[in-house]
Amino acid sequence: MKKYLMLVVGLLLLLVGCSSESGGNAEEGEDVTQWAMGTSSSGSSPYVLGSAISNVINENSDTLNLSAQVTGGYEENFSLIESGNVEVAQQNLYQYNLAYFGKEVYKGEAKENIRSLFNASLMPVQIAVLDESNIKSFEDLKEKRFNMGAPRQATHNIASIYLDTIGFSKEEDIVAGVQSTGDAAAALRDDQQDAVFLLSNVPHSGLIETASTKPIDLVPIEGEVADKFIANLNNSVVKTTIPADTYEGQTEDIETVAFPIVLYVDESASEEEVYEFTKTFWENLERLHEALPATKSLTQELATEGVQVPFHPGAERYFKEIGVME
To answer: How many whole angstroms separate alpha carbon 275 and alpha carbon 153?
Structure first.
């Protein structure tokens, strides 16, 4: 009986010893800081991005552990940062710049506590149509069923600005649809909409599914329309290209604009922790590209482009070290 008891005790001690050494990349005796990233709903593009970034940080940092947190979306993330419930969060750059300066929908509610880290992804505007529709340009959208997204979604607001840019009225020139981003691709497939306006990673999973049964095409945003759209969006978006054959039926490269997705923290965040996060992210960018192909268009040159909100000292320190900032 004693022999069995000693064996059990020995096994327990072995397990305890193993567990004490299984702290990821953290060195023995070194504290690991836990961070949560505010994203959006489970399965959404922001959540997928947050999960991919978490994996990169956790695999390559000895002092920082990151988890992607489901939230009510970009707007809720502002309050989560302010309350300290998350340490870092995502927002599209257009809304982010407006929020800091208290402009438009943020009038009287400026988010002066936020500080920038960097752009972490590009989310292109995709105006999808069925290939058989012969809708090739914005002029062809007139009097068509055009899904703008649910009224409270950022997508709906951006779609409204797009319509203003091309000189269309949503009351007179189109039949405005208000289905959510998640339902838009199916609505296109099921002939409930002629065109759908999406703000999403490329490729969009719903569009891939739709294109597998009904080939699709994309309406470009290019030339003077793109320049005016960018200006109307406070110069907070960039031009980009969606490669040919991204979707079945889309045989040519499509010019469009993309919203940088910016990561930010509260002004009180630790300089050392922010520096570690920023350094680990950019030194392992290729790993992020492998894990999430939608981030392949992200480069160091885009890290700070269009960001009008002051940078956190920890991020600024890293970008000065690598020559992105002077």
So the answer is: 33
